[in-house]
């Protein structure tokens, strides 16, 4: 079961294709490896894995979309034409279907830090350059 929440009011959403996230990981790219990758970068909550497991939705502070310019990572805020996100129930932590890789935020302090998300994207770019 999912709920549909409007982005831009209490949070914006950065959607990262799984390739961007997983490219930055050294070692095993299973669920634990991916979760540890996020946590090692200081991202400890507010991450949803899509139903198809091909994308991650990171809940960010509202207004993030106004200055977001990271290629390959779409940011959805209040001004986006389709600004709704389907999220699983807060206790859903495993597939099948969409699930919370990292716990849902209980308040604004638990939203993902844009600088840390940019670092995650940067690590993927670095590995892409090194590995060709």
Residues in β-strands, percent: 15-25%
Tell me the distance between the termini.
40 Å
Task: Classify the secondary structure makeup into a structural class.
Answer: alpha+beta
Q: How many H/I helices? A: 3
Annotation, overall tally of beta strands: 7
Instruction: Give start-end ranges of low-pLDDT stretches.
Output: none
N-to-C SSE string, H for helix and E for strand: EEHHEEEEEH
What is the 3D form?
globular
Largest sheet: 5 strands, antiparallel
Strand order in the sheet with the most strands: 5-2-4-3-7
List the helices and strands and how they pair.
Layout lengths: L1 E5 L5 E6 H6 L7 H10 L6 E3 L5 E6 L13 E3 L7 E5 L10 E4 L11 H18 L1
């Amino acid at each position: 079961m999912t709920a549909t929440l409007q982005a831009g009011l209490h949070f914006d959403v950065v959607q990262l294709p799984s390739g961007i996230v997983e490219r930055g990981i050294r070692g095993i790219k299973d669920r634990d490896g991916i979760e540890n990758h996020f946590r090692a970068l200081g991202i400890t909550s507010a991450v949803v894995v899509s139903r198809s497991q091909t994308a991650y939705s990171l809940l960010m502070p509202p207004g993030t979309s106004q200055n977001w310019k990271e290629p390959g990572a779409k940011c959805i805020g209040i001004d986006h034409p389709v600004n709704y996100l389907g999220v699983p129930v807060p206790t859903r932590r495993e597939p099948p279907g969409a699930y919370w890789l990292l716990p849902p935020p209980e308040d604004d302090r638990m939203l993902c830090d844009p600088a840390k998300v940019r670092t995650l994207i940067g690590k993927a770019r670095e590995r892409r350059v090194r590995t060709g």
